[in-house]
């Protein structure tokens, strides 16, 4: 069985131009049985240097994915998802959004902003050490998982490491072990999960998110819900390193199953 990609972006995300049909065709070409489209919705995202706001036209998006599902119903299972930017200080807006839209099979909770700054940009790291910048990022995730219960899994837990000026060398798990233990315990207690995100592998990192030590801790704490996503914004990265890195790291860490989601409920599949 081919692993299913549960983190994919189309032209409905500000940072992608990929047609929904191109995603479906590439998934079929790769032999996948199921995918989930998870376009960005980041409330209160300040317009960035490229002019992106990352606000999803949700009604139009849902309609387009429903049309895609009908078009491929005999070939490919297509789930409706969203990657929802979480920030604890605008919890009322984010909760109102998920209260309004009940259509989603799957919601990735993600941290793309910390106090209005995106770690994608160098400005986030200026005027302080990389350790301080990363700690602030991880502490914001802790605040989010303590605040929200309206998501399925937390996406790319160590996303900020991807864009550190020193790259992955800036991250030492031992510097943040306590905060990750608190994050993961809260995720598990709330019945949520995390993802293996292979997007970092085609962005010149040597490991997929999260760092293997984070993944190991999640397993040791009793975590079971885990999805696999490429975070692909173009078709060529769909399913990237699933059959090699993703499967291998999960089995090496002691996982026997991975998850997909349907109607916000995890479905377990043997690796």
From TrEMBL:
What InterPro entries does this protein's entry cite? Histidinol_P_phosphatase_HisJ, PHP_dom, Pol/His_phosphatase_N, Pol/histidinol_Pase-like
* Pfam families associated with the record: PHP (PF02811)
- Domain (Polymerase/histidinol phosphatase N-terminal) spans 4-88
SUPFAM superfamilies named among the record's database cross-references: PHP domain-like
The EC number on file is 3.1.3.15
Matching entries from NCBIfam families are given as:
hisJ_fam
Of which family is this protein a member?
Belongs to the PHP hydrolase family. HisK subfamily.
From the Swiss-Prot or TrEMBL record, give the protein name.
Answer: Histidinol-phosphatase
What taxonomic classification does the UniProt entry list for its organism? Bacteria, Bacillati, Bacillota, Clostridia, Lachnospirales
């Amino acid at each position: 069985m081919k692993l299913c990609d549960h983190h994919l972006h189309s032209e409905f995300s500000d940072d992608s131009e990929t047609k929904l049909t191109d995603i479906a065709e590439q998934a079929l070409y790769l032999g996948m049985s199921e995918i989930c489209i998870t376009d960005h919705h980041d409330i209160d995202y300040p317009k960035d240097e490229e002019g992106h706001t990352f606000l999803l036209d949700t009604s139009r998006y849902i309609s387009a994915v429903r049309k895609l599902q009908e078009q491929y119903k005999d070939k490919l299972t297509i789930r409706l998802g969203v990657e929802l930017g979480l920030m604890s200080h605008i919890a009322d807006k984010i909760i109102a959004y998920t209260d309004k839209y009940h259509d989603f099979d799957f919601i990735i909770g993600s941290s793309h902003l910390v106090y209005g700054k995106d770690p994608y940009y160098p400005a986030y790291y200026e005027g302080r050490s990389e350790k301080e910048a990363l700690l602030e990022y991880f502490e914001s995730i802790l605040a989010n998982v303590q605040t929200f219960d309206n998501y399925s899994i937390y996406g790319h837990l160590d996303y900020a490491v991807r864009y550190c000026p020193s790259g992955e060398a800036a991250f030492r798990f031992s510097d943040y072990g306590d905060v990750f233990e608190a994050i993961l315990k809260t995720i598990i207690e709330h019945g949520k999960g995390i993802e293996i995100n292979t997007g970092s592998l085609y962005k010149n990192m040597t490991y997929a998110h999260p760092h293997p030590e984070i993944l190991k801790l999640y397993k040791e704490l009793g975590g079971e819900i885990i999805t696999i996503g490429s975070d692909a914004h173009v078709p060529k990265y769909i399913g990237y390193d699933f059959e090699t890195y993703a499967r291998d790291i999960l089995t090496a860490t002691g996982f026997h199953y991975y998850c997909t989601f349907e109607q916000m409920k995890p479905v377990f599949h043997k690796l």
